[in-house]
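#lab-general

N.A. 3:47 PM
ok so I finally got the sequence cleaned up, no stray characters, all 83 residues accounted for. can someone with queue access submit it? mine expired

B.Y. 3:52 PM
send it over

N.A. 3:53 PM
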Amino acid sequence: MKPQRIRLFVKTWCPWCREAEDWLKARGLAYERLDVFADPRHYNEMVRLSGQTLAPVLEADGRVLADFGADELETWWQAQGWS
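B.Y. 4:20 PM
back already:
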């Protein structure tokens, strides 16, 4: 089973954010890309969800992973039972 809603908070110049997007795309997962520099509302929500200012932050069905690389994303994703 996969999550119903995936949101990815990114900073456009962030290499880890691009890695996270590539990871999601490689698995055919639809997600909403939220650029935290383009819209301050996205930045504020990212901080509220994660408690920090670092990106990327992924929210999937209310579960949050913050400040990660692709390896951490893979491990976290599997731990959620979404493999």
